[in-house]
Write a sequence for this structure.
């Protein structure tokens, strides 16, 4: 810790060698936004091709590369790193720690990401093209039948996994060891809680993903047959391994989002979070249940009926803790004094749309009905309601909420609200009709479709262009704030906000809490 | 024009109707399925059970949604700061919290009961009256009727929509992308068991109106069944991403009367016998070329290009194999190139078609070998 008053280094080396949690958080956030734009442009290509029946712009193989890269970039490049960035910025400030526990590792876990994604994007220019087997990369399409770029893809997944594991270990170490005196576990803000649990999920399942891709590598290059029936292996084994990672993964994505919403709603309701304890327990039970429901993605692979029943019942159970969370948020609003600044609008958008996604999740959990829903656009609608309106909306809310604290300037509320409404309308126009075409029989991941799906697909595409372009407004708003926003000087930017991060000066200085704060017992939480 | 106008209104009204959730299926009665917004109950008892289950859960969700969002919007309206309210300070209530943990639990049990019974119904494979083996190939389906007495009847079912419709140089037909050269034919009111597998990657055989979706997995045979109660043509698609032309491998099932089915089956068996005869014959160049073009367009053009220019597969025009030694060419056609997308077509095409397509490749697209392959050559090559 040597010199207590040094500021950031100058120039590029500041960013390359930094061990400062705020710098690293900032880099994560910008990187994830760049990936959001990249993954978004892939989506625009997909929606442009699907604007009308017939093949117009791309060929089917390239279309598959787009759906694959879109999924991979959004999940691993946009959503996950954005929440890691938020964790870096906020966790130390929320628990009264001077920095993350393992700052050098923190630097590494960020800096291995950009090369990995550069490499992944470069596969587009390789012979045979980029991976084209979907973000779920089922074998043997991703092994025996894959383009040579699959080997690079495997390498990238390993790097992303290493980055996530390092990030999670760091978060666990920070939360367990660096809380300010008096900050007991049950006083931690919910964002810290949800991230702590998420970090454990990550440490548990990223190695499983690494195992899956390693087995693929062995099958492709070293003559094993883990996933090839011809050699005594089992293609279904791949799916079990993948979803043992994959289902917890979706909760890795949504739990920090739950945390964000649990911070923001009380601030704009001017009322403490309802049911703090039950929020913590609900998060923990969701995390536990997420390990025993994976095969709900595999109802049609031909499991024995006992297996189907087990996974159906377990999946249905997740609705209980999820419901508890929704009820708690609404009770937090109940008889509060609500205002509707941009962060709150995005949280309310989250609340409505995530709940709809939860409903479709419950429908999908019903195995016999899933025989009809599975691999149709209904599933696409479901997971975009939970991942875009869930994770991305809450991330957007987080940026608006903490941006003034980060840079000491206020964003334009008018532009923020406009961003919200365009996003909200664009999002629903894109994804609501997908429920319809899915139920009516349109499979997912197809570059062209039968005529009866034409109108809803056109609607979807128009919605997607609207939602996509609204992000440019977001970018502009953020940059304009940083460059020339109205300065704010209150420590507590929002009158209803609670928590240690609002006790440091605005903008947050390069180093905060070099001497730990004393946590006031009356400040129970959030 | 009428259709177009209707389209546009649908497009304009869509969002409004969407929000109301009221777009009634009856408005689409004129052209049955356009802009359908719900799952078809289909033509099987299982399909009806699934549909009922789906609607039950849907309405439960709607009711819960109305309550939850009702409370939320009430709060948004009445508990806003601009109305001068002072915020309350309560932040827990054990009673309420227990209630909203326990009540949903019972709702879930209420859902689980019909779900379980429907699932058990679907898993009842007993008493099937006939078996069809369904095999997924990149990118077509093979249907094989397992006949206990008499020979099995087998054929491939390929997409019939021409490239010109897909690439927008011709008007799209009514069943664009949902039409095949040879549909699966099954009798009505008969419990048909499907044994589902795949030859290369994983596919999924899905026909919404028959309420069947089952993954076709190489090396495994999955079981499923249907019993259609109404004659008709039912269309579906492959539901599992299986590579480039995943979007272009539809499923079409003709459900016909038992009488018609028996006639169809007899005709198929006769046809198979005829092919056997043909295999012993010698064909002229013209006959081979004509037949070969048909086979090529159906089975090879997807990868090798309509004009032999290549694509996912190598170019046939000027190909060293197609302009080389005949045995080498037959070898690739019959046994494929292991580890590539070039499958072994020996088991997919009969010897007459194989002879024709090889001859065609050697003498089309500017290739000019002038030699012919006869069915007997194919037969001998297979024997080794
Ligand atoms: C009430 C809670 C939820 C339930 C019961 C649920 C249930 C399901 C089920 C059964 C499927 C499989 C559908 C199929 O493929 O046939 C599914 C798919 C999916 N869900 Fe959820 N879900 C819930 C919440 C979430 C959340 C919170 C997320 C992520 C933020 C999520 C993300 C996904 C994704 C990404 C898929 C599709 C994966 C793929 O095949 O590409 N779900 N969900
Ligand atoms: Cu899942
Ligand atoms: Cu497919």
């Amino acid at each position: 810790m040597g010199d207590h008053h040094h500021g950031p280094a100058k120039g590029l080396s500041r960013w390359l060698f930094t061990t400062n949690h705020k710098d690293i958080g900032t880099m994560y956030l910008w990187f994830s936004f760049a990936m959001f734009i990249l993954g978004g442009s892939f989506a625009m290509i997909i929606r442009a091709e699907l604007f009308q029946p017939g093949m117009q712009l791309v060929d089917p193989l390239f279309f598959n590369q787009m759906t694959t890269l879109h999924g991979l970039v959004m999940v691993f490049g946009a959503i996950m790193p954005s929440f890691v960035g938020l964790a870096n910025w906020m966790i130390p400030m929320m628990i009264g720690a001077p920095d993350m526990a393992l700052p050098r590792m923190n630097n590494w876990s960020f800096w291995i990401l950009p090369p990995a994604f550069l490499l992944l994007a470069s596969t587009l220019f390789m012979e045979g093209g980029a991976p084209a087997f979907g973000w779920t990369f089922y074998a043997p399409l991703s092994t025996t039948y894959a383009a040579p770029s699959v080997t690079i893809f495997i390498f990238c997944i390993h790097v992303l996994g290493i980055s996530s594991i390092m990030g999670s270990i760091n978060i666990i170490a920070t939360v367990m060891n660096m809380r300010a005196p008096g900050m007991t576990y049950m006083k931690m803000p919910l964002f810290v809680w949800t991230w702590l649990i998420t970090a454990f999920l990550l440490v548990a399942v990223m190695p499983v993903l690494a195992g899956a891709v390693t087995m693929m590598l062995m099958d492709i290059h070293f003559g094993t047959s883990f996933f090839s029936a011809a050699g005594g292996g089992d293609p279904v084994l791949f799916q079990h391994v993948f979803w043992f990672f994959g289902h917890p993964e979706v909760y890795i994505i949504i739990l920090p989002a739950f945390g964000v919403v649990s911070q923001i709603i009380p601030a704009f309701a001017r009322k403490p979070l309802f049911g703090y304890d039950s929020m913590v327990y609900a998060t923990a039970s969701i995390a536990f249940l997420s390990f025993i429901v994976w095969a709900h993605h595999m109802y049609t692979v031909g499991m024995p009926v006992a297996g189907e029943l087990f996974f159906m019942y377990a999946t249905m159970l997740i609705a209980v803790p999820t419901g508890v969370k929704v009820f708690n948020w609404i009770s937090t609003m109940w008889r509060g004094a609500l205002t509707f600044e941009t962060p709150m609008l995005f949280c309310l958008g989250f609340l409505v749309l995530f709940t709809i996604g939860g409903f479709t999740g419950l429908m999908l959990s019903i195995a016999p009905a899933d025989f009809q829903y599975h691999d149709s656009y209904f599933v696409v609608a479901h997971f975009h309601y939970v991942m875009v309106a869930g994770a991305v909306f809450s991330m957007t809310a987080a940026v608006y909420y903490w941006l003034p604290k980060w840079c000491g300037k206020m964003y334009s509320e008018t532009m923020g609200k406009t961003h919200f409404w365009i996003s909200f309308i664009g999002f629903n126009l894109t994804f609501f009709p997908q429920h319809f075409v899915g139920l009516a029989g349109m499979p997912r991941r197809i570059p062209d479709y039968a005529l009866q799906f034409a109108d809803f697909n056109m609607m979807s595409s128009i919605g997607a262009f609207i939602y996509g372009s609204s992000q440019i407004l977001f970018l502009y708003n953020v940059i304009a704030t940083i460059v020339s926003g109205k300065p704010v000087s209150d420590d507590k930017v929002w009158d209803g906000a609670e928590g240690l991060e609002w006790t440091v000066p605005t903008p947050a200085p390069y180093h905060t809490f070099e001497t730990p704060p004393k946590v006031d017992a009356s400040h129970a939480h959030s | 024009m009428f259709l177009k106008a209707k389209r546009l209104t649908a497009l304009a009204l869509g969002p409004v109707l969407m929000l109301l959730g009221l777009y009634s299926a009856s408005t689409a009665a004129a052209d049955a399925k356009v802009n359908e917004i719900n799952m078809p109950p289909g033509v099987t008892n299982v399909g009806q059970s699934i549909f009922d289950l789906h609607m039950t859960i849907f309405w439960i969700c709607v009711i819960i949604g109305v309550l939850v969002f009702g409370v939320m919007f009430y709060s948004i309206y009445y508990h806003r700061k601009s109305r001068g309210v002072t915020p309350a300070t309560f932040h827990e209530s054990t009673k309420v919290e227990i209630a909203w943990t326990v009540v949903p639990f019972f709702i879930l049990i209420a859902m689980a009961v019909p779900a379980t019974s429907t699932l058990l119904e679907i898993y009842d494979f007993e008493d099937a009256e006939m078996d069809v083996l369904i095999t997924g190939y990149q990118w077509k389906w093979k249907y094989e009727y397992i006949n206990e007495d008499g020979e099995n009847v087998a054929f491939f079912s390929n997409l019939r929509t021409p490239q010109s419709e897909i690439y927008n140089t011709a008007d799209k037909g009514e069943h664009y992308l949902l039409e095949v050269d040879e549909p699966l034919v099954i009798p009505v009111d008969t419990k048909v068991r499907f044994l589902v597998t795949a030859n290369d990657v994983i596919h999924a055989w899905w026909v919404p109106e028959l309420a069947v979706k089952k993954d076709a997995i190489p090396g495994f045979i999955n079981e499923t069944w249907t019993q259609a109660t109404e004659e008709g043509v039912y269309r579906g698609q492959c539901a599992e991403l299986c590579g480039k032309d995943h979007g272009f491998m539809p499923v079409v099932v003709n459900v016909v009367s038992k009488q018609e089915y028996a006639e169809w089956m007899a005709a198929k068996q006769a046809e198979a016998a005829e092919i056997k005869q043909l295999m012993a014959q010698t064909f002229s160049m013209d006959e081979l070329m004509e037949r070969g073009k048909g086979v090529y367009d159906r089975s090879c053009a997807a990868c090798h290009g309509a004009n032999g220019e290549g694509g996912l597969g190598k170019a046939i025009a000027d190909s060293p194999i197609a302009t080389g030694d005949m045995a080498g060419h037959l070898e690739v056609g019959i046994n494929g190139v292991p580890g590539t997308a070039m499958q072994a077509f020996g088991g997919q095409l009969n010897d007459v078609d194989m002879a024709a397509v090889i001859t065609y490749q050697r003498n089309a697209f500017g290739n000019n070998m002038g030699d012919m392959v006869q069915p007997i050559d194919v037969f001998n090559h297979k024997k080794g």
